[in-house]
Amino acid sequence: MMNFMAAHRWMSVRIQLVGATAVLFSVCFVVTMNDVWTISPGLAGMLIIWSANFTITLGFMVQGISESEAAMTSVERVSEMGTKVPQEAAAETDSREVDLPEEWPRTGQLEFKDVRLRYRPGLPLSLNGLSFRLESGQRCGVVGRTGAGKSTLTAALFRLVEIESGTIALDGVDLSSVGLADVRGRRRGLSIVPQDPVLYAGTLRECLDPFGDSTDEEVLDALRAVRIGGKDAETRGLAALEDVVEEGGRNYSVGERQLLCLARAALARPRVLVLDEATASVDAETDAFVQRMLRTRFEGTTLLTVAHRLHTVMDYDVVLSMGQGEAAEFGSPRELLLGDPEGLFSKLVD
After folding, report:
1. Which domain holds residue 17?
2. Mind listing the pLDDT tens digit for each residue in 329-345?
3. How many Å apart are CA 146 and CA 91, to the nearest integer?
4. pTM (2 decimals)?
5. 69 and 22 in contact (C-beta within 8 Å)?
6. Where does residue 271 fall: left (phi above 0), alpha (psi -120 to 50 degrees), or beta otherwise?
7. Are residue 148 and residue 290 in the same domain, yes or no?
8. Reduced to 3 states, what is the DSSP secondary structure of residue 34?
9. What is the CATH number of the domain that holds 146?
């Protein structure tokens, strides 16, 4: 917009110069040719006035052309957005290609097989041949240094970015063949508690259960499970569910927002739960409480926890150590620590 206004000003100055030149030429013509053609005063005045108006006419013409060009540029951009910009995959699963059972996923078995992903063409691979397998109900901690691809793993799982090659299978079904609504919004399917929690404006009940799938007692039980409201929630009972949540959860701290997102996940009872630094903004005591709650409230759920606090995953079934988008190590914490003292996980612990 700034460039367009600058070009418009540049053109206006030159139009004024052209108009002034036209007036000067008209005056000189009347003065020098008056003796030859005997131009009447009225005709001479009309010629000079028309010359002066020529500047205005030329300005309107150039302005109309520039505005038309700008409008056509907007149409071109809209057309380009609709035809050339890559679009997301279909929201609904094509039943002709995939026979997806109504109760899918049943167990929560998750497998990454030779997954490669880059955020856009020309950039290096963020996931480079990542392969691992989680059985139903296993708890897996994902660790690694900054830039190792930990958060990219969750982006690939939820198809926020489409993978370049390889397969991600949930209960044996390739997620790339499933509609986005079934990947991200299927009841008792995949769920995530992100590092930057998202809360909706409204009441606590609407925030935790936006689709009304759970009873008030279940919502209140989930709220008590994460200790939001403290003793006040215990004494007020169902009235606590009417507490107001401002846009984005501004009236709650970041740690409380993460706990509310965890309560929302507890209500959803997913087969696979991803925790992307879900306890990064809570204190050590609350973190320990959350880890205890995960063992009881999410029994049978496959957990995939991206963690910087290594002590939170030391009692997990397996740990995935990532480096440069690859699975550098995969096994139980005990195996990784005792098997290779110089390994990535051992170095991170040290």
Report:
1. 1-33+42-56
2. 898 888 888 877 788 88
3. 32
4. 0.72
5. no
6. alpha
7. yes
8. helix
9. 3.40.50.300
